[in-house]
Amino acid sequence: MTSESTPQSLAEVADQFTSHRPKLFAIAHRALGSPWAADDAVQETWIRLQRADTAAIENVEAWLTTVISRVCIDLIRRDVARREDLQWEYSAEEADRPEDSALIRDELSAALHIVLDTLGPLERLALVLHDFFALTYSDIAPIVDRSPAAARQLASRARARLRGVDIADVRHGEESAITAFLSAAREGDFGSLLQLLDPEIELRSDPAALRLAGAGADSGAPLLDREVAGPDAVARVFNGRAHATQLVHIAGAPAAAYVADGIPRAIYLFRFANGRLASVDVLADEKVLASLDITL
Q1: How confident is the model at residue 134 (pLDDT cuts 50, 70, 90)?
Q2: Which of 61, 87, 36 is nearest to 285 (CA)?
Q3: What pLDDT, on a 0 to 100 scale, did the predictor assign at position 85?
Q4: Which of 17, 27, 103, 123 has its C-alpha lying 20 to 30 A from 66's C-alpha?
Q5: Rounded mean pLDDT of the chain?
């Protein structure tokens, strides 16, 4: 919508929110690393849209991108509040360099997945918005409350950390862990399952995954629940099950998916700690699946 356009009603803006929701979820998911946190961020953005003067919004997509980014910054800061300082000083030599272009999207995705928790909120957003969603640094600057040059340096600093990741080695280790997990589950090897799980592991499933698993329980679907905690309980969910689940990649990161007729019907997102599975998120919501870059 341009400044010459007729102001939009909330209903009209709501329709645009729905159309932009997949992009908003994708931004939040990459920045926050959790589908649950991403969904919370999208819902908060919708609440803020409802409270806004919609007649004054000239570009709904740009407004939503700014708000979802600021919501993500707030959530990241809340999550890492224990850190004493979330701001950094930058030097000119940290600006973008030609070799940054050598990080192709797949490598960048994998590296970001690995080091996400080591990046501060502004670094995450500057990198995600520029490298994944092609926003200019001039567009990013007001979102992160920095100058365009400082926004560029935020992204550059994040890339410097990504370049230090041995992507192939980490990816191989995670793929091996997921493959071993699926194999132990199918074979009903309870002891091996326990050895693969972190003592603090958590399993969470969205409502669509619960319905899907419930319908297929008699044919070997995992015995999912909304939340399951602890290695013993999580191992029981999968023991002797998950026969139709296979290794996949989502935005370059290894994951798993229940595949039927060549189509992913549910995906398993893993986080790791000390080489073990530390969390599993099971998602089957069609809109969420459509927003993810899944490679079988």
Answers
A1: confident
A2: 36
A3: 35
A4: 103
A5: 85
Q: How far apart are the C-alpha atoms of 119 and 111, rounded to whole Å?
A: 12
DSSP lists the bridge partners of residue 283 as: 267
End-to-end CA distance of the chain: 38
Give the pair of three-digit tokens for residue 121. 């909120």
Both tokens of 33, joined, read: 């690393």
What is the DSSP track for 218-278?
A: GGT-----SEEESHHHHHHHHTT--TTEEEEEETTEEEEEEEETTEEEEEEEEEEETTEEE
- CA 183 to chain centroid: 26
- Confidence band of 163 (pLDDT split at 50, 70, 90): confident
3-state secondary structure of 27: helix
The pLDDT score that the predictor gives to residue 7 is 56
Candidates 101, 94, 99, 153; CA nearest to 127 is 153
Judge whether 73 and 144 are in contact, CB under 8 Å.
Answer: yes
Angle 292-122-153 (CA atoms, 0-180°, nearest 5)? 110
